[in-house]
Design a protein that fits this description.
This protein is mostly helical. Helix content is about 70%, strand content about 0%. It has a domain of about 30 residues.
Length: about 55
């Protein structure tokens, strides 16, 4: 998990709770998960939306 152990992940979670509050943390986690999922999907199945395809 990005080179983080359980202790470091716990500290990040506690800091997130203090900064964003307990109501927004699940929403932020969901958004982060969706972004990571989309990034992984694009790495596996790249689309042809790059500018180099349109230059011809």
């Amino acid at each position: 998990m990005f080179g983080l152990g359980w202790a470091e992940a716990g500290v990040v979670l506690v800091v997130g709770l203090l900064i964003f509050g307990p109501k927004r943390v699940p929403e932020l986690g969901k958004t982060l998960g969706q972004a990571l999922r989309g990034f992984r999907n694009e790495l596996k199945n790249p689309t042809s939306d790059s500018e180099s395809d349109h230059l011809e």
